[in-house]
Write a structure and sequence with these properties.
With 281 residues, the chain is an alpha/beta fold. The protein folds into 2 domains: 203 residues, Rossmann fold (3-Layer(aba) Sandwich), CATH 3.40.50; 47 residues, Alpha-Beta Plaits (2-Layer Sandwich). Helices cover 33% and strands 27% of the residues. The chain contains 10 helices and 11 strands. The strands form 2 sheets. The chain has a 9-stranded mixed beta sheet, with helices on both faces. β9, α7 and β10 form a beta-alpha-beta unit. α1 packs across α10 and α5 runs parallel beside α6. Bound molecules: iron/sulfur cluster (SF4) (2 copies).
Length: 281
Amino acid sequence: MKIAITGGKGGTGKSTIATSLAVELSKKNKILLIDADADCPNDHLILSIKRKKIKDVFQLIPKWDFKKCIKCGKCSMVCKQHAIVFVKGKYPIFIPEQCNGCRACMFACPTNAIGKDNKKVGSIYEGKKGNIDFLSAELEPNQPSSEFVINALNDYIKSKNKKYDFILVDTAAGTHCDVIAALEKSEIALAVTEPTPLGEHDLKLILELLRVLKIPSNIVLNKANVGDKNLIKRLASKFNTKIIAEVPYEKSIMESYSKGKPVSHKSIKKLAEDLQNGKTR
Ligand code: SF4
Ligand code: SF4
């Protein structure tokens, strides 16, 4: 079963839930844990896994042949990423960090002065701990989009074709393309949130996305004993979903978190049991 651990808002404790759940489920099952938060991967730190790089990920970018360029500026005009600066009478200036490889400039150039090159956008790593096989994606600094790295990660997983009892995907926060790529083929999603107005706002966004993607959602309420739980309860009923687990704000949990250790708590044990027994949406 592939389970996404996601959430509209950053800092709600997705990584804490994902790693703790992986440890709990791995007591009886073979687990693949995927850290798909390529901007800020930290599951390996929480689990003390030493990562080994498997491969670098490259993205197509344009390459200019100025001998063919007639300085018309059309490439700059079509670039929605503002990756090409054009000043009348000069050759275009390319800003590779801005480029997402859409190739619009290549199609627009009337003299075929733009060919193909590539840039490194990230890397994929693997590791292991007990019954947990681990994969992680990491974006290069200054790169605008982690979608390419997540797609490369998905391709790598398909190529491995190994069987697991549970595949847990810890996605990035938000509802961007990299999150959508990470959610691919998930059978259920655990939307992690907090009982605050901001938590409610961002939870709504991720529940809407999950509805569009037709992935059944369940809510994990972190820091459940602070704030107003009714905010999340009301939203859950609007989306016809439920709070499947409540993880309290407790000293022992905070201590584990601050020491970079997976959390061991009855709420996580119960969540693991419910998932093993199919007690989810
Ligand atoms: S490939 Fe797309 S994003 Fe990159 S420079 Fe060309 S038009 Fe801009
Ligand atoms: S569209 Fe082609 S010819 Fe025109 S400025 Fe760009 S590279 Fe040069």
